[in-house]
## 1
Amino acid sequence: MARVETTTRGFGCPGKYIQGPGELKRLEEYTSAYGANVFVLIDKRLYDTISEQLKKVYENTSSKLVLDKFTGEVTLGEIDRVTKLAAESKPSVLVGIGGGKTIDTGKAAAANLQIPFISAPTAASTDAPTSALSVVYTEEGEQTHCIFHKTSPDIVLVDTEVILTAPVRFLVSGMGDALSTYFEARANAESDYANYVGKGYRRTKAAMAIAKLCYDILIEDGLEAKLAAERGVATEALENVIEANTLLSGVGFENTGCAAGHAVNEGLTVLAETHHFFHGEKVAFGTICQLVLENRPKAEIEEVVRFCLSVGLPTTLKDLHVEPTYEKLMAVANRAAIEGGIAHAEPFKVTPEIIYNTILATDALTTLYKKQWGYEA
Ligand SMILES: [Zn+2]
């Protein structure tokens, strides 16, 4: 993406967003609106439980269910496999149930078959459920490119009870990802960069309001939501945060754009030691880096760092198991500031040296805060 050429605004979002306890058990009600043949791709971690549940849901209905297990990586090969397998049953709708990768694969297969797609996330940890794009990887798990689809999912179906069965770390990581949405939107607004809708347009006022609400909900309800999830119970705070992590963050980022926060995350992925950290955990650190890069008011930086510490998101290089050597941080910075990358959506010139300096300065600041605020001796 680049700076927009016109003043035309663009906004895209899923057809419907539905969130509440037990909604997955009502899947047949939603799929039957499209037709009788339903193809469902399910995450392998949850395949046994969910496939049994769905068989019960669909028995004694006029709908015909075909189930498939997602192999674990969004590769062109896996998308092709799912497309071909699904085509055999001539489905009228395709459903993806699982994490971001299962959903992105289902989305791409549904696009290939030109049929409606329903995404049903099993954790509130990614922006995949609402977006019109699939992130593709190699067999080895390295990100290669994005496929931009013509439309967003027809329905996003979020079952709060299912979300509660996922480890709480997923919810917290989703908050880390959602934390970046407003600040990256603001950077894109300042640089007047194109969003990710179609060919790329100026962001709407609605998109900016969504991004800001996403941040406000995290600050207001984030900690309460995490504590409720730890006890395995749904509360209004938890529902708000699931909505922020899934709908507001998803629709927010797509309609406003990413910037340095996600660029630093992309940079961190070059270090093997960060591979066991979730996307949103790296994005949380990246978001603090972005605020330091932009030299935002101290109160704003402190609010973000305090939030991260309160819910247990990483704020320092040590938290991310990264040794601050010149070679490692320069490798991160080179990837983060890669030519044509999202770091250049910042409203000023960004170079690898500037990112390197920012990461070290951020780490110094957050390490000090952790000590001052009693999070570390
Ligand atoms: Zn993200």
## 2
Amino acid sequence: MVKNIGLVWLKDDFRVKKNLALSEATRKHKEVVAFYLFKKKKFEKQESQRWWVAKSLEEFKIKLAKYNINVEVLEIDSYKSFFELLLNKNNFSIYWNKTYEPNYLKFDNILSKKFSDHGINFKIFKGNILNEIDEITKNDGAPFKVFTPFWRHAERFYSEKIPINYISISKCSKKVSFFKNTISAVKIYPKKRWFKKFEDFWNPSEENALKHLKNFLKENIENYSDRRNYPSIIGTSRLSPFIKHGQIHVETIWEECNKLKKSGVNKFLAEIGWREFNHTLINNFPHMIKGNYSKKFDKFPWVTNDKFLSAWKKGLTGYPIVDAGMRELYSTGWMHNRVRMIVGSFLVKHLLINWIEGEKYFKNSLLDYNEANNVSGWQWVAGCGADAAPYFRIFNPILQGEKFDKDGNYVKKWVSELKNVPKKFIHKPWELKNDNILKIGSEYPYPIVLHEKARKKALAAFKKI
Ligand SMILES: Cc1cc2nc3c(=O)[nH]c(=O)nc-3n(C[C@H](O)[C@H](O)[C@H](O)COP(=O)(O)OP(=O)(O)OC[C@H]3O[C@@H](n4cnc5c(N)ncnc54)[C@H](O)[C@@H]3O)c2cc1C
């Protein structure tokens, strides 16, 4: 046991199970303080996440108190200046788990050098991923750019490697404080109160993450490959915000899945595989965080149209499946994957608006926002990513609706104006022509663009590059 205090820098790690930084600190130190750095500027464009983070901190504080560990929250202007201040202290050792975003990893290198130069004891651990991002390469050391061979290799690599011996965290001798000027987690909640509705859908905690997983594996894994396409049913795990904020480690998901011999497991783990793939992509090709992975898209003739962009964000495009998705996102901070693809395709291909606008809006609205998945998801949809959908494959929002929301239950749930529209017209209400049921144009908008016309325009724009 070391005499000084063990500090644990919490990022996306609100869990006790499989938390290497936390268990190392409690193994080595009698007194441990976990801290969270709230950088207001970062969260200005990630409003929904403020809710999840504040909730998680409140919950985690109570949980860690049982281990005599204090959770302290600090508001900072920059990570760099905060750590500069720490260099003047010498009564601590510090531990944290990696976050697999290029800026965080770069900063880990800077901190490693500074702490070493100042003789400060520190250790950085593997974060929430199956394989480290540099472990999976082609034979010649180059990164994979296509998902299927990546995952074949990554899955085998992970199952053959010696598992990490995760040690449970231990109880500290007494609860101590370390930082001055800490703030309450309550200060992190967004100012606008739209998030109150999130409470009906989510309860962020490690226990609930495991419950979600177990329920999903019991009830839904068998037909996951098919059911994952239908937004009106619970056909997917809805674990993404828990994974993003580290309430569950993907290694736990892997273990629980491998206890089962059920169909659906491979497909489900392949989705975890996409998450792994996306993390390797943004780190090997960091230019894709701010722009197109495929440079030829730099010449794409995107359109600036604030009216269309605003209609899309508000769920007022006149295409029910698109509008339902955008309203689900606003109300719950989450959107079904099939619908993410449909609304994304609509923005980029029907409205010809740069995917970056969609990425920004999702970043601000999603509880599961994650740099790797969001940037890659948008570039997959736009056709400019690695292993992306070809640009010329344009989702028809009417047919997508008719195929994946046949009875219109999803649309009716989120677009209440359409609740009396018969099934036959639910995905094309402008054809109904019955003012007693729906006054199209006043109660619900006409389509802001016509599908066929927009499709031809998108293909012509694509030909230009
Ligand atoms: C335009 C667009 C933006 C997206 N932005 C994000 C984002 O910011 N954060 C995010 O976590 N996912 C994002 N996704 C991927 C996907 O939509 C969500 O991960 C999924 O809908 C989460 O629901 P679930 O947990 O029920 O998924 P499940 O189907 O139960 O899958 C389990 C887990 O696998 C991972 N996963 C599933 N699908 C994908 C996928 N296509 N790509 C990468 N990982 C996947 C997630 O971690 C998910 O929680 C985006 C997809 C698109 C098309």
